[in-house]
Amino acid sequence: MTGSALSVGVHPDSSTAPAPRCEPTLGVVLPDHANPVGDTGRMATPETTDATATTSPEPPTRPRRRRWPWVLGVPVALVATTALAVAVNPWPGTLAVRFVFDRGAEKVTTALEKHAPGGVDSLTDQQYRGGDSDAFLDVYHPDRVAGTADALPTVIWTHGGAWVSGDKSNYATYYELIASQGFTVISLGYSLGPGHTYPTAVNQLNDAHAYVVANAERLHVDPNRIVLAGDSAGAQLSSQLATLVTNPDYARDLGITPSLRPEQLRGVVLNCGIYDVNRMVGGSGIVGWGADESIWAYTGTKDFAGSTAVQQMSTLHHVSDRFPPAYIAGGNGDPLTDKQSKPLAEKLGGLGVDVTTVFYPADHEPALPHEYQFDLDNEDGTRALERTVEFLKAHTAPQL
């Protein structure tokens, strides 16, 4: 970033000596020098004095320095330094995005609390990966199964937050509401960018699935009736894990052995997710800037076009006809719906996958924003939860 030079015009009265020159630059005060050239452009000569005069010549006065250009230079220099830091380091932009997303999630989580159903037990902060301080999960199930060996169909939820924010405890009441309908719900924590970059989270979540299966009895999990779910970036991650499970070529490309078998995976619930990352980058305005910052932080590169991570994250191009039944939803006020959710639904439908969609006409009022499904004070949010539970029950019912 370059700063515009400051220009100061000095207009001395014609009856006085020329004012000292002052040519400030950003953050620097140049020394003043007397101008040896008179008003006429000729070299000035000393005035003649009376040899008998008793008065002494006045001592020369020190030119007055102008201090304010230096003061102005400080904020300009700080702006330039900040701009440089933002251009070469994802942390400044990430912290701004994280602040916005975390505040929004906190507000929604608090608003949900009044809808808590009761009759649900929780088991929190279970470490699913030894030595990993980010690898914890929370479990919710009906309290009626406590002390029994009952195994319930299980929803494994991955939270959103643009891959750089969020927490497994966000929207806890929402998970309790699903659990109250006869499910075990498990909310997964994972490492965020830019502190940890792709594919750290994918490996963590795959290990979480292994932990859930290994501890199925203790957690009241039926390991043969599992649904992967998520919102926003969490929907992207859940779609990626489902693709990993059901597409052997994709698993080989990632170099990851899936922890679940295709027959264990009964479905996926994908709310307002991202499935073609290339369509997210290079956007305009604050939303476009935030998307670019988040993807840079998560992938570790600004070369999106040449990024292996971006290519692998774009599950739209890797799903197969073995993909599990899918519930895909998005609000009409969310730009991701037309660019991400609808194309994935169309792709899966074309492959013969069982797809349930919840979309709204463009003129639906009120316009439903990103993550509207967590707003249970809104009739459409409540209906989305009902549709989600209907999908879960239909696809996890015991097979005869």
TrEMBL record:
Region ranges (Disordered): 1-66
Which superkingdom heads the taxonomic lineage of this protein's source?
Bacteria
Q: A single GO molecular function, which one?
A: hydrolase activity
InterPro entries per the record?
Answer: AB_hydrolase_fold (IPR029058), BD-FAE-like_dom (IPR049492), GDXG_lipolytic_enzyme (IPR050300)
- Indicate the secretion signal residues: none
Please list the residue ranges annotated as the BD-FAE-like domain.
137-348
Keyword list, A-Z:
Hydrolase, Membrane, Transmembrane, Transmembrane helix
Query: A single Pfam family, by name?
Result: BD-FAE
Transmembrane ranges, per UniProt, are 70-91
For bias type Low complexity, the affected ranges are: 44-56
Q: What is this protein called?
A: Acetyl esterase/lipase
Q: Which lineage is the organism of this entry classified under, starting from the top rank? A: Bacteria, Bacillati, Actinomycetota, Actinomycetes, Mycobacteriales
